[in-house]
Amino acid sequence: MNTFPKQHKLCGQERITRLYKEGKRFTAWPMRVTWEKVPEGQTAATEVLVWAPKSLFKRAVKRNRLRRLMREAYRLHQDILGSDSDSDQLSFLIAFNYIDKEEQPFATIEKAVIKALKKIAGTGQ
RNA sequence: AAAGUAAAUCGGUCUAUCGCUGCGGAGGGAAAGAAAAGCACAUGUGCUUUAAUCUCAUCAGCAGAGGAAAGUCCGGGCAGCACAGAGCACCGCAGCGGUUAACGGCCGUCAGGCAGCAAUGUUUGGUCCCUGCUACAGAGACGAGACGCUAUAAUGUACAAAGGGACGAAGUACAAUGUACAAAGGAACGGAGUAUAAAGCGGGUGAAACGAGCACACUGCGGGCUGCAAUUCCAAGUAAACCGAUGAUCGAGCGUUGCUCGCGCAAGUCGGAGGGUAGGAAGCGAGAGAAGGACACAGCAAUGUGAUGUACGAAGGACGGAUGUACGAUGUACGAAGGAAUUGGUACUCCUCGAGAUUAAUGAUAGACGCUGUUUCGGCAGUACAGAACCCGGCUUAUAGAUUUACUUUCUUC
RNA sequence: GGUGCUAUCGUCUAGUGGCCUAGGACAACGGCCUCUCACGCCGUAAACCCCGGUUCGAGUCCGGGUAGCACUA
After folding, report:
1. Which of A57, A62, A77, A98 is most deeply buried (CB count within 10 A of its CB)?
2. What CATH number is associated with residue A39?
3. Which nucleotides of B are covered by protein (CB under 7 A)?
4. Over the stretch A81-102, which tens digit does the pLDDT of each residue have?
5. Which nucleotide comes closest to A73 if you measure CA to C1'?
């Protein structure tokens, strides 16, 4: 099932700071992706962070919509990283930052998320 | 019918698939200890059950952004800190009356300016006693009347100058006196467009000319400060800071007298206590110090909740010529219970409404409908402004489109 | 989320309601100087964030909007 409960959300000031400081980074237009592999042995779920900057989108309505689109795209295609039933699956911390100045439709964002997840899955293994 | 003005209301709906947050419920699971009950035996242990706690790849169910949630411009609640009372300073408000928990809001109304044919909109409005300000122009800018002219004791400056100690010369300092100017004074005199003792009137300058306007001045009223990232609690942990013990032997640090001893401090070691930050919880929403309505209710009594109520009518009423307008004491009717005041605990009905997240949910995709415009009647285009963050009352700003009521102007028909 | 502040030539800034037709420095442009450049000298152009109000008069005072900055765990 493609769910996205609260446990899969990346929280905590220290962990977010560490991810942006030490994580690997690439661009999948219209987003920038920062990610990090969780060390072996810690059997935590993959956690994801999503945001759109206030400096590019002044109105809260647009920021909310972009955030929801990105989150929905990840929810539909999180199978690429491996299903939950796998016992020896790999876990990641991932952050999606929207960087384009225009509001893109869902299809564009969905394609970009698929491309990014495939890249992470390929590099992680 | 068209155009306009004001007030009020609404501001999308449905289906399919997948998903998020909260709530209580059902079901399953978990480990250790505590409580109650029961059973067994050596009065303590073991076992079982109950409710409670925690949890879930479970199950259906219910609820889930706004009229402005925005700006943070006012006011209040709530929280912490400060605080005897009064005054000063500082800040805010300002026709008049009313309304309110409170307000800079709202309602009614008066006067002036501006826009409009009008309905109407918009904007300004305490006072000048004290302290000050009013550039340029103008005789004069807030206690001021120029200007001309005349006489004069004394004063200052400039120029001229008799004189100016020794035997003499030059003539310095100084200087009677005279002239001019300045400032001061106004006893007498003169003129100004008219008039004339002055005041006043008129012309000119100027936004404003003894008339005033303004605020930094005065008067009245109000204001303690900071804000939910306030504030409170929980578990874990301990810092060069705090407390207690120790600080032995040789040498060694600082202070107490230059030295020694002694005393104190201090390093180190052990123990205790203990924040802040990060994490979690409360505050936080089925509310009653803050939603609306119905008309009854609860209790042992006093009584309490509801009700600071609703309707009628009305003295008064800023203003106004008057009728009378916003509001409205007393009164009448309806209204559960009660009837001076105080007090302990308990109780506080029904209906409607019902977000409570926290790296921050309220969504995504596909289709259908509705509304507006256009149309070749198949379609095509558009469907706004915008997202809760402790909660309320206002204001301001942004808004596609739609509806209702009242009024104004113009036209047409009867 | 809450609180406070700022906006003047291209840049940095000055500016008691009237002497503001808004001053200064650097930069820009034109000329002079030089064999040429620089330095130097002379000159020119260039701004009160936007919309209303108060006042005889507003860059300044008041209200609303826009943009930017800082503080606060």
Report:
1. A98
2. 3.30.230.10
3. 18-22, 57, 65, 278-280, 358-365, 386-388
4. 765 444 456 778 888 888 888 8
5. B364
